[in-house]
Amino acid sequence: MAEPSLIGDYLSELSAQLPARIIAELADGLDQTRQYYLDQGLGPDAAATAALAEFGEPHVIVAAFTHASPARRAARKLLATGPVVGACWGAALIINRGWAWPIPAGARIAVGAALITVIALLATAAFNGHYRSAGRAAVAGCIGITALDATVLITVVFVAPTVIWPVAVAMAASLARITFSTRSLRTVLAIT
Fold it and tell me: Is 101 exposed, middle or buried (0-12, 13-18, 19+ CB in 10 A)?
């Protein structure tokens, strides 16, 4: 029969770019659509061709799933909130004279480099046109931003001479971002 070959080739092309869970849903939908056309009196080849035509070109399906990807949404939200959290920490560190804290220059440089890397990962996830690579970048970005926020929180607890209200606000912002990142990470891992 030709329809398994047509549909199988179609699903193979999609499976190279989308996770197995999505492919299984698409396969089920294609099978139901093919069955509908068989019930309407089309032959097996014509039913398979009609079902594939109704679903559309593989690149269009991949683009739609990529655009709606939870990985992209999470990365975009983290990128959008990053400047707000950064401004909270900037104000807190300026008011609390963070430059005078006993933190080695190497540690400051490492945190800065890690921040730049995380921003690049999140930007890759947010604007990437490939589902799988966007998902991998989002996973790494969520883990990275969580680690950075945790590092800053731990450092402030042990190094800050006093915790004044701007530091408390920055800490709350980081805790909120950690919560969002870990929830997003679970969602992205579940569908990647």
Answer: middle
Give the residue numbers spanning the domain of 56: 3-65
Residue 163 has what pLDDT? 77
> Which residues of the chain are modeled with pLDDT < 70?
1-4, 192
12 and 88 belong to one structural domain: no
Do 156 and 177 reside in the same domain of the chain? yes
Helix axes 20-39, 3-15, angle to 10 degrees: 160
The total domain count for the chain is: 2
| Confidence (pLDDT) at 2 | 43
180: Cβ contacts below 8 Å, ≥ 6 apart: 74, 77, 78, 81
Structure tokens at 158: 């042990």
Domain boundary among 26, 48, 65: 65
Name the nearest CA neighbour of 86 among 125, 120, 112: 112
